[in-house]
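Regression test case RT-17, inverse folding.

Input:
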């Protein structure tokens, strides 16, 4: 196991209060729905730390198998995200070797990241949008964990994928499927009894009132809302780019394919 430096210091240096809940929570949602925005806001809380996307529960291949490990060895995006966390390939390989499950790997990675951030007594959380595919496994491995689901108008999600500033996906069917599959999995998860573990926040609501929405989230995860700094900084209301990016026939097709979830989430 890696020898982690114990003398790291940073803006979060503190002693560990015995009463605080350090159970990780998970931000999930369709890509281009505000998961990164939400993560960055919550990172302004002195107790909360979140690495880049970990992907630990995204893929269905068994833990430790060559298929499970391949993205961490060969995917340049995944490797870049770990570099942004300050985690070297050697450190990550040591974490994998010392783990017997996804849960152990996630916990060890989270603790290492807290050390890297100079906040060893903080609380790590995860933001990997596609972890909604692994919600059942996360729920089994972390029985007390909660989920924050941020959702957005599918028309703006598809428009963002078409524009491709972060994720480029010009295929209409594939772009729409991102949203439909996310909503389908979340709906089924809640119907199976997980509704009390999920807080759902609309992207439009958050960008219109980030202070109120941030307070709801912190109450849901049991953190002091008074410690969050500038939740509204850099947040702008939804711009409805789909009106400039999508044609009438595209809009009609997206609306047709996204029913009934579009109606359930208020996008009529």
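Golden output:
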């Amino acid at each position: 196991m890696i020898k982690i430096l114990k003398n790291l210091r940073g803006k979060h240096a503190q002693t560990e209060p015995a009463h605080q809940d350090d159970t990780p929570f998970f931000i999930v949602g369709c890509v281009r729905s505000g998961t990164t925005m939400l993560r960055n806001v919550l990172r302004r809380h002195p107790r909360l730390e979140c690495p880049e996307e970990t992907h630990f529960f995204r893929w269905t291949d068994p833990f430790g198998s060559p298929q499970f490990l391949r993205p961490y060895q060969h995917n340049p995006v995944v490797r870049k995200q770990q570099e942004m966390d300050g985690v070297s390939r050697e450190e990550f390989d040591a974490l994998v070797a010392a783990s017997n499950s996804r849960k152990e790997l996630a916990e060890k990675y989270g603790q290492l990241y807290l050390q890297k951030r100079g906040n060893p007594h903080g609380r790590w959380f995860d933001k990997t949008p596609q972890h909604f595919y692994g919600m059942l496994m996360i729920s089994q491995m972390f029985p007390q964990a909660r989920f924050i689901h941020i959702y957005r108008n599918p028309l703006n999600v598809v428009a963002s994928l078409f524009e491709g500033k972060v994720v480029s996906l010009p295929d209409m069917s594939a772009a729409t499927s991102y949203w439909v599959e996310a909503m389908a999995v979340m709906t089924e998860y809640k119907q199976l009894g997980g509704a009390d573990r999920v807080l759902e926040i609309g992207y439009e609501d958050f960008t219109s009132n980030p202070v109120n929405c941030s307070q709801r989230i912190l109450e849901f995860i049991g953190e002091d809302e008074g410690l969050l700094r500038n939740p509204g900084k850099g947040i702008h209301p939804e711009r409805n780019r789909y009106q400039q990016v999508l044609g009438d026939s595209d809009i009609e097709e997206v609306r047709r394919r996204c029913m009934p979830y579009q109606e359930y989430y208020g996008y009529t």
